[in-house]
Amino acid sequence: MKIAYPGLLREKLPSGAVRYRVRVEGDKARRIPLTVTPEHPQFVEIYHAARAGVRIEPEASPEDRAIRGSIGWLAAKHLAAMERAVEARSLSPLTLKKRRGVMKVLTSKYADYALDIPQSKLVELRDDMIETPAWADSVIEGIRAMYRWAADRRLCAVNPAIGIARIDRGKGGAIPWTPDDLRKYREYHQPGTAAHLALTIFMFTACRISDAIRLGRQHETTIEGVRALQWQPVKRDSAKVAIPMLPPLYKATRASKVTGETYLLNYRGKPFSTPDSLGQMFRRWCRDAGLEDRSSHGIRKAAAHLLAQEGCSQYQIMTVHGHTQAKTSEVYTKGVERWRLARDAMTALEVMDW
User: Fold this and answer.
1) What are the residues whose beta carbons fall under 8 Å from the beta carbon of 53, sequence distance 6 or more?
2) What residues does the Tyr recombinase domain cover (predicted)?
3) Would you say the pTM of this structure is higher than 0.85?
4) What residues have CB less than 8 Å from 153, skipping those under 6 apart?
């Protein structure tokens, strides 16, 4: 559809080039030349300013505003590349959001530093966030990934973030739920509520929260005569998941009075717009049930531990969790398998003539 711009003049110059000017509204004799064409993303803003008698220049990109060869310049190029990857659907918007946070921390302190910044400066940056060790480690990990991206494109030769140790040693991530936690939550949140359905989905699919907001009846299928759920996780490089839909999960998905395109709906009866919105609501449901410091990821960990304790191999857990690398699922099976090996070894000692 062609859009009309009153007062916009397109003039062909003797050189063959095209020039655009705008008549100022209320002053036809005054014409303001434009520095951009209608294809420019800021054209509408610049056009309306010209109609009002104001001439503005297009805003430079963050990359253009930064000092070439500086950390701020590299961060802007890196984020621009990630934005293009999101548009091409080869990168998760959640990854971009997290990386923007990392770049904000980095550039707030070192934007004008040269790319070959001393590693000691990055260690200082990490140590400044000692009160939030997990985030501090995530910042360094993001900086390391940025430099790795830059090295692949020959924008730099050295990655100063390589070799910086982690400082998060204590808690090992989300706290796995115990059977008592699950019982306490279910006693407070009765079947038919969104809170009960959320717990059931997390427990019987072991899905990430980014997938929980998408799962619905369109993912139900039948495989070899068995009712199943099948979906492609949002997280990049995850394998497609196909698991049996066990009776507790099927019953919970049919207990809700309000149905929609997804199983989980907010208080307006609409799907949750982002994983964060569901995450905040789930933490509230946990607090209501008297469970502090519990999260949906802790249920995913609990499911993995229970599967391991029931004798599932790390490869079986991989298929449920969508892992593509055995080392990821090994986290849940290693302790259980070491116990089984020790138990079997000690059983062998029982027959020794001592």
Assistant:
1) 24, 25, 27, 30, 32
2) 172-346
3) no
4) none
